[in-house]
Specification:
Layout lengths: L7 H23 L6 H26 L11 H11 L7 H16 L1 H14 L1 H16 L5
Length: 144
């Protein structure tokens, strides 16, 4: 089996894409109107992308500590990433909720986005802390 190689350029791209997604979500949150289906769709698509990018980030970083990333084991990857300093130590409740999104999307798709909207609004500062940590972690690998 071929071992995955660490790719700093890919990691930088993921953090850049995450910045754009967070900015898009913030605009939607500022102008959110449940009646406006466009707002709902943009939020839903953006939050899906946010979760996908968190997974890609962990996947790219976990190879630095010889740990595999597995979509099916998102919660395990979050725990390993926090333990290794790849993700910041924010608080257990934040990560518990974040880990639930992979489970409830398939089980309760109608609840998923409403829950995601509440989560994002309640944890906006923690999400910014998460993002800033990811940028700092990525910049540690970039040689100027």
């Amino acid at each position: 089996m071929k071992r995955t190689q660490f790719n700093v350029e890919g990691l930088a791209t993921v953090t850049e894409d995450l910045c754009k997604v967070i900015e898009r979500i913030d605009v939607v949150m500022d102008n959110y109107n449940e009646e406006n289906i466009l707002n709902v769709r943009v939020f839903n698509d953006s939050f899906d992308k946010f979760m996908d990018l968190i997974g890609k980030y962990m996947g790219k970083c976990l190879v630095t500590i010889s740990e595999p990333y597995n979509d099916g084991l998102f919660s395990v990857s979050v725990d390993k990433s926090v333990d290794a300093g790849i993700l910041p130590d924010i608080d257990n409740e934040f990560y518990r909720e974040l880990k639930l999104f992979n489970k409830i999307k398939s089980a309760k798709p109608d609840d998923y986005y409403y829950t995601a909207y509440k989560f994002y609004g309640k944890n906006n500062e923690k999400i910014k802390k998460l993002y800033n940590h990811m940028v700092k972690y990525t910049n540690n690998f970039i040689k100027y």
